[in-house]
Amino acid sequence: MHELSITSDILDLVLCELAKKGYNKVIKIDITIGDLSGIVREHIKYYFELLSRATPAAGATLTINYKKSKFRCESCKIIYESCDFSFLCPVCKSRGTLVESCASIYINSIEVE
Ligand SMILES: [Zn+2]
After folding, report:
1. How far is the CA of 100 from the centre of ligand 1 (A)?
2. Residue 61 and residue 30: Cα distance in Å, rounded?
3. What is the CATH number of domain 3-112?
4. Which end of the chain is more exposed for a tag (fewer CB within 10 A), N or C?
């Protein structure tokens, strides 16, 4: 359940940016979650709603994108992306080697007014 602290960190960052730039309201936040981060989108949304109450980010739209990790299959030598939380090669179903890991969460953009 590390989504609570992650969401809290995101909100802190957003509110800090807002204050720095002199705006009063957050309209939209766009974030990307790496598929190996283990972060559940619904939990982030839930905690965001909870934590943003009574802050300038209340009611802001939270858009969450997923970034997929890339693997290389040692049998067929193809590069593939993880799919539906399966990390196996889509062609031969053997276990691939991780070549590009996406285990973080990023803020892409913040819309304010
Ligand atoms: Zn394969």
Report:
1. 17
2. 8
3. 3.30.2320.80
4. N
